[in-house]
Design a protein that fits this description.
binds ketopantoate, about 300 residues, 11 strands, single chain
């Protein structure tokens, strides 16, 4: 059977990093952009060494069928971006969502029932020095899965070949939730206080806010059946704060750049689950409103 050809929608740092990794390990890859078709040379910098890879680029509305799509856009762009390429998607196309937050896989499944929608989460760190120059800043784990699917699909072998520390996760919802839980605490607080992640552990008033949010996330996690996250959220948040102390969170970067934030898919998703279980989650609700007030 021929290997999957990957179309990558969302040519930000993470999209380019995975596109380059797939291409370098022998997979066919095309970047899908809002611009014109052509070729793009990407430079990937990793631990001081820079490698180059040139990829074909197509426009959103070009002809040509898409059988396997990796989506790495901002969460708030996913629905529109997938709708834009929908006429090109094969009947049973595979769509792998590697985006922040939760709720989008369900939304895509209900809008496009024929698609095979998979989800992923990664702790790989990357940022763009410019649109073609990506800095691979941190090596992490990449988990991919689909609710109810114990065994990976055939295309997953291409990911194992391309991406170190990539594994199939049969409990992908729990993995996504545990990342969401950490993001619910760190991202809005750093965005509201305009601080780097590490400051959340240094200032007493911010430590108190972290604790209050963690208590609510624990409550919601227990109610939703994510027991492991409920039992470990405090330690996980402390570890991520320490490990990414110098980082400006993605939400702080979005607010600083005047972009929309992903709050609807992070705290907003937590609040929807809290409501389903009759939990008020007042601190999370307040912080959700505050982020809404300062951002788009
Ligand atoms: O995922 C992140 C983000 O900024 O979105 C963390 C882990 C908080 C790192 O900054």
């Amino acid at each position: 059977m021929a290997e999957a050809h990957w179309h990558v929608l969302g040519a930000g740092a993470i999209g380019c990093l995975f596109a380059a990794a797939l291409a370098r390990s022998g997979s066919g890859v095309t970047l899908v952009t809002r611009g014109h078709s052509g070729r793009r040379r990407l430079r990937i910098e990793d631990s001081g060494a820079t490698t180059e890879v040139e990829l074909p680029v197509c426009g959103l509305h070009d002809a040509g069928q898409i059988a396997t799509l990796l989506v790495t856009t901002k969460a708030y762009d996913v629905v529109d971006a997938v709708a834009a390429v929908a006429p090109r998607l094969a009947d049973d196309a595979n769509v792998l969502l590697l985006v922040n937050g939760m709720g989008l896989a369900q939304e895509l499944r209900s809008r496009h029932p024929r698609l095979q929608v998979y989800s992923g989460t990664t702790t790989q760190g990357a940022y763009r020095r410019d649109p073609t120059h990506i800095c691979h800043a941190g090596h992490g784990d990449t988990l991919i899965g689909r609710p109810g699917q114990a065994e990976p699909p055939p295309w997953f072998g291409q990911w194992v070949r391309a991406v170190p520390r990539c594994r199939w996760e049969s409990e992908i919802e729990a993995a996504l939730w545990s990342k969401l839980a950490v993001n619910c605490v760190i991202n809005p607080l750093t965005a509201l206080h305009g601080c780097r992640n590490g400051e959340l552990a240094l200032r007493a008033e911010l430590r108190a806010e972290v604790e209050a949010l963690c208590r609510e996330v624990t409550q919601v996690s227990y109610a939703a059946g994510y027991t492991q996250t409920a039992q470990t959220i405090g330690d996980s948040v402390a570890r991520v704060i320490a490990g990414t102390a110098d980082n400006r969170s993605s939400m702080l970067q979005d607010v600083s750049a005047g972009r929309p934030t992903e709050i609807d898919y992070i705290t907003g998703y937590l609040l929807r689950i809290a409501e389903e279980h009759g939990i008020p989650a007042q601190r999370n609700r307040a912080i959700f409103e505050e982020v809404k007030a300062i951002a788009h």
